[in-house]
Write a structure and sequence with these properties.
The protein has 423 residues and is an alpha/beta fold. It has 2 domains: 204 residues, 3-Layer(aba) Sandwich (D-Maltodextrin-Binding Protein, domain 2); 190 residues, Periplasmic binding protein-like II (D-Maltodextrin-Binding Protein, domain 2), CATH 3.40.190.10. 42% of the residues lie in helices and 13% in strands. The chain contains 19 helices and 11 strands. The strands form 3 sheets. It has a 5-stranded mixed beta sheet with strand order 2-1-3-11-6, sandwiched between helices. α2 links the parallel β1 and β2. α1 packs parallel to α2.
């Protein structure tokens, strides 16, 4: 997933904790009758001293330990870019920790290696916990009929607009539909402002358009892409993007042009009217562009509605853990209101559907993101999911360059994904 550093004020997190402390507790259970230590790896600090890591280590872990006498949690923060390699090496040497905060794209990979515990088989209350989460996030833990983790935190992409660009078109609201999105392109003609920009054609970038356009990337069982990715609905959606690109209304960063103005600078700088991005952008712009007041709205709706993509992390239990009972208690704690809401002010979104209103009360800017999560979906939950991004970027760029049709590009990508699914 896209995972920029999200560092907000620790004082905001402290305010959230004070707000919820009176009504929340970690619960009882998990006492092994003797001191044991659970090891937990993740990237809350992304290698630094962030507000997320501070809340975890200074507030949440102590709360769990107080409620579970004799159980200690030893957290190791690993830079995100290093964590996958560390986990891969440790799995090969049977040196994994008890618990891992895993990028949601990694769970099928490690489940396929046999190093994770299928929680849906081993936790008596798994279904109750699972039912409380957003379906799109929960689905990232599914591999060969079992769930190997539970959602820990999440995010999604929404349409973010420059209010000056909206004003230049005489609009009071961002485009709400595909048709309105295309109409805004013509309204921007002559203004020097490009309608939209993104940083590639991987699943993170493309799937909100595909799903909202009424299409998909594979069948429901994730066994075949041909006939799905190259469907008429997807051809229509991709052609819309290609036509806008050829008209100069989509920035060339979408085809991998390294010289393109970044979306994080181009939107507040007036280069782009709209982008798709996540809740962390608020914190980024607060430091770099303090006077910028973006407008957040749902992904423009096509024939399939308004559907975005989920990002985030899951929590998994390793098969090598010698303290699985206690580790499952910590997993249960991560699904609690106390744990989930304490991290909202640090840039995370709760995975628990019932906490949506309380999340928005803590940070009103999260209202659109919270609403978008109700329909947001997961990218392919397969061990080699990263290769799907390579295929999409490689096979679809020629359609934007005009060397092949949208139909041919999608068919070529579907054929390559079929080979990947069969391997």
């Amino acid at each position: 997933m896209k995972r920029p550093t999200r560092i907000l004020a620790a004082s905001a997190a402290a305010a959230a904790i004070a707000l919820i402390a009176a009504g929340c507790s970690a619960g009882d259970g998990g006492d092994s009758g003797g001191d044991i230590t659970l090891t937990f790896w993740g990237s809350y600090g992304n290698g630094g001293n962030s507000a997320q890591q501070d809340v975890l280590e200074s507030t949440l872990i102590p709360a769990f330990e107080k409620a579970h006498p004799g159980v200690h949690v030893e957290y190791l923060d690993v830079p995100y870019d290093d964590l996958l390699q560390k986990l891969t090496t440790s799995a090969a040497g049977d040196e994994l920790p008890d618990l891992v905060r895993a990028d949601l794209g990694w769970v099928p990979r490690f489940a396929d290696l046999g190093v994770l515990v299928p929680l849906s088989k081993e936790m008596d209350d798994f279904q109750e916990l699972a039912d409380a989460t957003y379906p799109g996030v929960l689905a990232t833990n599914l591999w060969k009929g079992e769930y190997y983790g539970l959602p820990l935190d999440t995010n999604t992409r929404v349409l973010i607009s420059n209010p000056a660009a909206l004003q230049a078109t005489g609009r009071t609201e961002p485009p709400a539909t595909f048709a309105d999105f295309q109409k805004m392109a013509s309204e921007l003609s002559g203004t020097g402002i490009t309608l939209f920009a993104d940083g590639g054609l991987g699943a993170w970038n493309l799937m909100p358009w595909i799903w909202s356009g009424g299409g998909d990337i594979t069948d429901a069982d994730v066994t075949k892409s041909s006939g799905y990715l190259d469907s008429a609905a997807n051809v229509k959606t991709l052609q819309m993007l290609v036509d806008l690109y050829k008209a100069g209304q989509i920035g060339n960063g979408i085809v991998g042009n390294e010289g393109a103005v970044s979306t994080s600078e181009g939107l507040p700088g007036g280069n782009y009217a709209t982008i798709l991005d996540g809740p962390w952008m608020t914190g980024i712009w607060a430091g770099q562009f303090p006077d910028f007041a973006p407008v957040y709205s749902p992904v423009p709706a096509g024939d399939g509605g308004s559907i975005s993509v989920v990002g985030g992390e899951d929590i998994v239990l390793t098969a090598s853990s010698k303290h699985q009972k206690e580790a499952m208690e910590f997993i249960r704690f991560t699904q609690s209101e106390e744990f989930q809401l304490a991290l909202v002010p640090t840039g995370q979104l709760s995975v628990i559907t019932a906490l949506g209103e309380k999340q928005v009360a803590l940070d009103p800017k999260l209202e659109i993101f919270t609403k978008q999560l109700e329909t947001a979906r997961n990218r392919l939950a397969i061990p080699n999911a990263s290769e799907v991004d390579t295929i999409l970027n490689t096979e679809l760029v020629p359609a934007f360059e005009g060397t092949i049709s949208a139909k041919e590009a999608l068919a070529n990508a579907a054929e390559k994904i079929d080979e990947l699914l069969a391997s």
